[in-house]
Design brief:
By secondary structure, this protein is α/β, with parallel strands linked by helices. Helices cover about 60% and strands about 5% of the residues.
Length: about 475
Amino acid sequence: MDTVSDTVHYVFLAAAACFVIGLHLMNHPRTARRGNTLSAGAMAVAIGATVWLVAHQDRISSTGWLVLVSGGVLGAALGLWAAREVKMTAMPQLVSLFNAVGGGAAALIAVNDLLQTENPAGLGARVSLPGALDIVIGAVTFSGSLIAAGKLQGVVSGAPVVFPGARLLNVLLPGAFVAGTVWLVLVPDSRTALYGLAAVALLFGVTMVLPIGGADMPVVIALLNAFTGSAVAMAGFVLDETSLIIAGMLVSSSGGILTKLMADAMNRSIANIVIGGFGTGDSAPAATGSGAPAQVRSVSADDVAVQLAYAGKVIFVPGYGLAAAQAQHELGDLAKLLTDHGVDVSYAVHPVAGRMPGHMNVLLAEANVPYTQLREMDDVNPEFPQADVALVIGANDVTNPIARRPGNAISGMPILDVDKARSVVVIKRSMGHGYAGIDNELYTDPKTGMFFTDAKKGLSELKSAVAEFVG
């Protein structure tokens, strides 16, 4: 190795160290932005060092440089556009697309390395084995993430999509992975093994995610993110690049931990999620407010405003309905009005409140909600009995008391103890089901008032009404 190569190697190690520090800083909302900036800066430096090394080695043609620069400019432009223009409600879809890009890129590294090696038959298991694993994991991540993004966007049905023989196919395909991996390790120069392994992995990504329902998408996103990290780490072994191994394993391990935490929050095993079949609510019939059952108590903006204005403690419970209505700013304004009036305000955030881990926290931070008011489920649940009003905005399954009883789709799922508050108000457009496709018993509780309206419009009306009482 020459001086430039040595320098670039140490730059890569420093960048990997920054990734570790950046991930640590993301443990707390106050330092998360700094950690994200540090990690992004380290990645930019690593990319620059790579370009420097490629230029120094002078091993690519003018056409290669054109492709490299064009790809970099196009990717940077698309990334910048997506970051600035994507709606917060579409952030899970964007993350799924990023997972697809990461997994696909990692798989292509292995494919290219195996195809371009001058003597592929001479490759040992040290290169061919991680190469085969890279292709499998990366290809599964690529196709699976595209299906997940399609489900979240509504292009693919959010309900479980099962076809005859799907279960059997999902059992046979992993066996094909093993056979294809062994074949490629034993015969690294076999194009049939290489292309066949990639094709089978791409197919499995589709058949794995299609049967999974919309309710499990937050967990699937975290799982595919872990897959992306594993694929990148395998690419690091193929290229013998330590920084890629470190970065990939950071993503893989943190994504794996997050997947387990998200599954626990839904009281579901990862195996059951992958088997699929849960979450049909987005196709469930919904009754309008005017057609609500007799036992449901409907309330107006003035009714709710009186309760809020004279409450001592209010807990807001935001759900995906808040995100879909883009009503986070209206909620933040209402909370500030109540706080200025001396009301103790907090937000109860369930781990799967949005469609992605941390989705609701980011949404509320966008509305300048103080971090100190955001409370995790385990911390806020003991406070519900002391709350004068619990205001639920677009949250469904995560507030359903039926989860405390066995024999239903969400049995055992940890929920927010909203029904223990002295008074409950639910802002919802209709009596429609959540993703689990079951009725919410909270809505028929005698102390629950249903405010049937769009979240954005309803919160604006509440703000105006409350202002009249506290002004």
